[in-house]
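Revision sheet: structure tokens.
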Amino acid sequence: MQKDCTFVKILFDMSFYPSSLFRSGYLFAIIIMCTACEPPGDQAYSSPSTACPCNSQTYLEAASLFTQVSSEYKALCLQAYRQATEHLPELAAASEQAAVVLDLDETVLENSPYTAWQVMSGEPYSPATWDQWVQLASAEAVPGAAAFLRFADSLGLRIFYISNREESQLEATITNMRALKLPQVEPSQFYLKSHTSDKSERRRAVIDAGYDIVMLIGDNLGDFHNGYDKPATNDERDRQVEADRSKIGREYIVLPNTLYGTWEGAIYGFDRSLSDAERCMLRSEALRPAPITGAE
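Predicted:
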């Protein structure tokens, strides 16, 4: 007989929690009590590793914690922006109309409070709740981003932000970035999403405006070119990384993002119709476990 999967969550409220609270060490109590957890209906899985989680967003917990509390995350971001700072003057010197192009989310703006909300509420990503987070205009800057942007601005470079935030979110985004005192946050510097997540056309628009893009900075490899985008598999993306090896760390600066990305969509075959249980199963199948038999 299939048992119910029950859980109790003790939350102060269901609103978004400012990231400063997490980083200040405040604890939000969450108690999850699972008497059993099986897929709904008659659906069955071949091993316990593919069992349905009580909270479909629990898998984001470690990723969110890594971003919010680990010193390693901060160090990786600082390392990336240090590389960018060291290479930018040389790259910019080769052009009279040099520009640097950056993604926004998890490159300039850090959004782990949203995924932390997903974990604590059990609610998956949706455009509506993501928009609520964006409208709060309270994202903090990714470590190292502000100093780098001010440095690029001091060199006289043009800075463009090419993001898959919706065009309707421009005002809130500018409000957020001005509060962080970031440079060149006029509407003309933003190329947000209008009809496609592929950023190729928007990068081309910067070039067509007369600028040489000397450096691209992002957390998703599609921020550099569309060879990494859907429908590329993760194996194909790995091969593209090898092809781009000479540019990575110099012209292509990669920020760490454990929260989401095309790499995860590739695990699901970019199929948005999959259930939480099916996504859970595919994540488990993608793992490569060691051949350990367990404790004797």
